[in-house]
């Protein structure tokens, strides 16, 4: 099952990238839905499960503090990479495009890690996290292509980075086959990923979905994303 999921993440990233190359005018709706999906997983799945798993050893306040730490850590990594860039004489930021695409690939590796560790908790949790990651990876594929093209890169360069980004979550998933974590520490790991997902949804996907587009339909898509993941999590139990 986990091998199949890892291959699905690869396919979702590639589909997102080629979607970006072909249907640029519909991206804001996809990104709006993606934002709702990853935020829904953070609030309705990762955080409650982290509190439950960490409960025997860690107080709830510690688990929520770790989630906040995850949010801040992801923000620092993201801002650090974005700030250390320059524009060329054409006004294009090739360095930023490469660093942003590389950052997304690292984020995709962490997504794969999240799937593998979630399956260590249970198959139901693993499947819910996998759904959110698949939606997010589709968006990652879109963003990887957009970063390269907006920085003046060629279509061939965008496709090369898309392939790297598509392989990253597969490596992340497969790496978790070689180690196991105690349940209470899995709770802290899930709390960290909760912070990651909250940052991705609130600080990356939502602003990008609203950029240059009316907020009405993107907001509706975000709410739909949250509702869909809430229902899926409740069905999974």
Secondary structure elements and their pairing?
Blueprint: H1 2-22, H2 27-54, H3 60-83, H4 94-121, H5 123-150, H6 155-175, H7 183-210, H8 215-236
Structural features, described:
This protein has 237 residues and is mainly alpha-helical. It contains 8 helices and no strands. Helix 4 (94-121) packs antiparallel against helix 5 (123-150). The radius of gyration is 17 Å and the shape is globular. The model is unreliable at 83-93 (pLDDT under 50). GO terms for molecular function: metal ion transmembrane transporter activity. The chain crosses the membrane at residues 30-48, 60-77, 113-138, 159-179, 185-206, 218-236. It holds the Pfam family Zip.
């Amino acid at each position: 099952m986990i091998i199949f999921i890892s291959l699905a993440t690869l396919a979702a990233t590639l589909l997102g990238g080629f979607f970006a190359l072909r249907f640029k005018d519909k991206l804001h709706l996809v990104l709006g839905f993606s934002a709702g999906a990853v935020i829904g997983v953070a609030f309705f799945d990762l955080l409650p499960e982290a509190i439950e798993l960490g409960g025997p050893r860690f107080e709830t306040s510690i688990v929520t503090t770790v989630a906040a730490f995850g949010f801040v850590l992801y923000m620092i990594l993201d801002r650090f990479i974005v700030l250390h860039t320059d524009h060329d004489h054409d006004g294009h930021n090739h360095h930023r495009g490469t660093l942003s695409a590389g950052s997304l690939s690292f984020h995709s590796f962490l997504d794969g890690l999240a799937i593998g560790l979630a399956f260590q908790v249970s198959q139901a949790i693993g499947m819910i996290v996998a759904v959110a990651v698949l939606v997010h990876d589709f968006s990652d594929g879109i963003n990887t292509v957009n970063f390269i093209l907006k920085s003046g890169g060629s279509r061939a360069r965008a496709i090369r980075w898309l392939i790297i980004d598509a392989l990253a979550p597969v490596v992340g998933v497969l790496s978790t086959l070689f180690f196991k974590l105690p349940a209470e520490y899995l709770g802290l790991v899930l709390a960290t990923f909760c912070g990651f997902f909250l940052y991705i949804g609130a600080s990356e996907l939502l602003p990008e979905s609203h950029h240059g587009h009316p907020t009405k339909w993107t907001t509706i898509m975000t709410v739909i994303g949250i509702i869909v993941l809430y229902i899926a999590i409740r069905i999974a139990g």
